[in-house]
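Lab notebook, bench 4. The sequencing result for the construct came back, and we need a structural model before the next group meeting so we can plan mutations. Quick request posted to the team channel:

Model the 3D structure of this chain.
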Amino acid sequence: MNASAQTMLMGWASVFMVSGGVALALYISITDPESPLAKLYHDYTKHLDGELRGLFIQETTGRAICNWQIGLSLAVMAVHFATQEPISFVFVPLIAIGPKIWLIDAKNKRQDKIEQQLDTFLTALANALKASPSLGDALGNCALLMRTPIREELELTMKETQLGMPLDQAILGMGGRVGSRAFAGALTTVLIGRQTGGDLPKILETSAATLREMARLEGVVRSKTAEGKAQAWVLGIMPPILIGILNWIDPQWLTPLNTTFMGGIIWTVAIAFWVASVFLARKILAVDI
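Done. Here's the predicted structure in C-alpha cell form:
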C-alpha cells in the first residue's frame, strides 16, 4: 500500500472515529435523565409529539424525527470533515428547521382541507338540526357523513363529550385545535345561535353561502399571487444551487470562506439572512381575506 492510500485510509478512519465518538457522547448525554441535553431532547420530542397528535399522525413519533435529525447532522459533519466541502454546512440549518417547516406545511394543508369542507359541514349540520333539535346528535350524525380531516375532529369532539366534557367546551376546543379563523368563526356562530335560541338551521345555511363566496374570492387572490409564489420558490432555492455551481467551476474559490474565522461569520450571516428571507417571503405572500 502506497503512502497516499495509507493517508486516505487513516483520514477516513479518523473521520469515522470522530463521528462515532460524537455519536457516543450524544447517546450517553441523552440517556442520562439528569443531563441538560437529555431534558432538551425530551422536551423537543414531546413538542413534536404534541404537534403530530394535533395533525392526527400516528405512524410517526417525535423521537423518530429527532433521531433522524441527529443522524443526518452527524452524517453531514462527517462528510464535511472528509471532503472539506463548505457547501455541506448548508444542509445543517435545513436539517434543523426541516421538521418545523414540514409540520407547518402539514397543518396549513389540513386547515385548507377543513375550510374547503366547511360549507358542506354547515349545510349537513343545518339539515341534521332540522331532523333532530339536539346539537350533540346533529354533530354525531355529521361525523358519520363527513370525510377526513373534519370527520376526525368531530369524532374526537364526540368522544370528549362522552367522557363528560360540556358540549360547548368541546366545540371550542375543536376550533382551537384546528387553528382556522373561518372554522372557529363558524363554530362560534353555532354556539351563539344555540344559546340565543334563533333559527339555527337558517343561520347555518346563510353562513355556508357566505363561506362559498369567500372561497371564490380566495381563489381569485390565489391566482393573482401564484406568480409571486413561484418567484419566491426560485429565489429560495437559487443560493445553494449557485454555491454548488461556483464550487464545481473553481473548488478553490470558496476556500477563504471555509478556512478563516471571518469566512465562518460570513457563512453564518448569509445562511441566517437566506432562511429569514424565505420565511419573510412566505409571510408576505400569505394574503388573507
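The chain is about 85% helix and 0% strand.
Will bring this to the meeting.
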